Amino acid sequence: MAATEPEPPTPTRRPTTVRSRAKDHSPWNWLLFVPIVVPLIPVLFNGDSPRIFGFPRFYWLQLAYILLGVATTTLVYQMTKKRGGR
């Protein structure tokens, strides 16, 4: 059995991965750092009060960080998705 070598790209046929990666640079993507950085700020959760429904600040802030991540991801997706006609 002889091993076949892959065809080199010709000038008329370009790899599609290079083209699609170049279009992924949107300033909206920087917002995805918000749900990563905000939970790393200890001043926000270093305390017991205020309590919501009896839960200390640390626990309800964990749920708030999840909502922040979902909202941020949804916003970035909506702003960067490719439209049908464009």
From TrEMBL:
Residues 1-12 have a biased composition (Pro residues). Residues 1-22 are annotated as: Disordered. The keyword Transmembrane helix applies. The keyword Iron-sulfur does not apply. The chain crosses the membrane at residues 28-45, 57-77. This is DUF3311 domain-containing protein. Keywords: Membrane, Transmembrane, Transmembrane helix. It comes from the Bacteria. InterPro entries: DUF3311.
